[in-house]
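Now for my pick.
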Amino acid sequence: MPWPLIYWTWLPEETIYLIQLAVFAALAFVLQYKPLRFLLVPRSVMRQRAHRCAMQQFFAQNIYTTPGHTGVLLFVSVAERYAEIVTDAAIAAKVPATEWKDIIAKLTADIGGGNAAKGLVQAIRRVGEHMSAHFPAPANKPNALPNHLVMLQAE
């Protein structure tokens, strides 16, 4: 953007360049502060990014490879303030999306109220109830995937 300054002011080009460099350095320094960066990102962009990350993890964790396509991912992104349940085809066909939205609404309300652990335990319990109602586990059959928590660090 130096051209308007060069054209409409009497400032020497070197001064305009130094001003531009100083503004760039100041903004680069200020935007290193992550909470400020998150305030500047539009909510829709944060949600799209978090949804994309949820879908990537659904595939990266091989949840889509379960026999009978019964994989479920409970995804929570603290930075984006976003939660989502991603289900495989067989689960999606049996359980309506409104059920998952209700679980997420309760989870996010608990997290917002400072009860993250309680909310996560209840969400996992409710997901398990849907799973056992529609796809009861056969006796003596191990889980197709390990039940574990995966924590990712923002870059």
